[in-house]
TrEMBL record:
Lineage: Bacteria, Bacillati, Bacillota, Bacilli, Bacillales
Residue ranges annotated for the N-acetyltransferase domain, each copy included: 10-167
Pfam families: Acetyltransf_3
Gene Ontology CC terms, in alphabetical order: cytoplasm
One term of GO molecular function: protein-N-terminal-alanine acetyltransferase activity
Gene3D superfamilies cross-referenced by the UniProt entry: 3.40.630.30
Protein origin, superkingdom: Bacteria
Name assigned to this protein: Ribosomal-protein-serine acetyltransferase
Chain coiled-coil ranges: none
InterPro entries reported for this sequence: Acyl_CoA_acyltransferase, GNAT_dom, Ribosomal_N-acetyltransferase
C-alpha cells in the first residue's frame, strides 16, 4: 500500500475500502462547503458511493493512470488529493485536492501539495505538473500561487457545477522551476 509521510502531522496514503465510512462522513459533514466548487458531491449519497470511489482510486493506481490519496492530519482523514491523471508520454501530471471544512486554515493542503510535487519530480520522473482551479475559488488558487506555479491560461467555462459553468485557471510548474522555488525557501 502506498503511504507517504509529509511531516510529523500529515500523511498521504491510498485508502482501503474499509476507509469508506470515514470518507463518506467527511464528505457528508462538509457537503455544502464542498459543493460550491466540486461537481461530484451530489453523486456521493452513501457509503457505497465512497467504496466505489476508493476502488476507482486503486484501479487508477494499479494502471498507473493516477495516484489518488487520502490526506491524514494528526491521524484523521481530512481530505483527498493526488495526481488525478498522468500523461507519461510527456512526463506530466495533474494535481487535484479537497479537504473538509473543519480542517481549513491549517496549511494542510499546501504542505501536502508541496510534498506531492517533490514526489512527482523526484520519484516519478515528471517534468511538468499542472493544477486547475475555478477562477473564483480563491482558496484553491492560493495553493499553486504559494508554491511557485505560473498561470498559463484560462479555460473558459471549463467545468459544469450543477447549474452553471465556471472558468478554470491553469497553473503549471516545471521540474527546474521547482528546484529554484525549493532553493529559495
Amino acid at each position: 500500500m502506498f503511504v507517504y509521510a509529509v511531516d510529523e502531522e500529515i500523511t498521504l496514503r491510498l485508502l482501503d475500502v474499509k476507509d469508506a465510512h470515514e470518507l463518506f462522513r467527511l464528505t457528508d459533514r462538509s457537503r455544502e462547503y464542498l459543493r460550491e466548487w466540486l461537481p461530484w458531491v451530489d453523486e456521493t449519497r452513501t457509503v457505497l458511493d465512497s467504496k466505489d470511489f476508493i476502488r476507482y482510486a486503486w484501479q487508477s493506481y494499479e494502471e498507473r493512470l493516477g495516484l489518488i490519496l487520502g490526506v491524514y492530519y494528526q491521524g484523521k482523514l481530512c481530505g483527498m488529493m493526488g495526481y488525478n491523471q498522468f500523461d507519461w508520454a510527456n512526463r506530466a501530471g495533474v494535481i487535484g485536492y479537497w479537504q473538509g471544512k473543519d480542517f481549513q486554515g491549517l496549511g494542510i493542503i499546501t504542505r501536502a501539495t508541496s510534498a506531492l510535487i517533490d514526489y512527482g519530480f523526484q520519484n516519478l520522473g515528471l517534468h511538468r505538473i499542472e493544477i486547475r482551479a475555478a477562477m473564483e475559488n480563491i482558496k484553491s488558487r492560493k495553493i499553486p500561487e504559494r508554491l511557485g506555479f505560473t498561470i498559463e491560461g484560462q479555460i473558459r467555462q471549463g467545468e459544469w457545477l450543477y447549474d452553471h459553468f465556471v472558468d478554470l485557471v491553469v497553473y503549471g510548474l516545471l521540474a527546474n522551476e521547482w528546484e529554484m522555488v525549493r532553493g529559495n525557501r
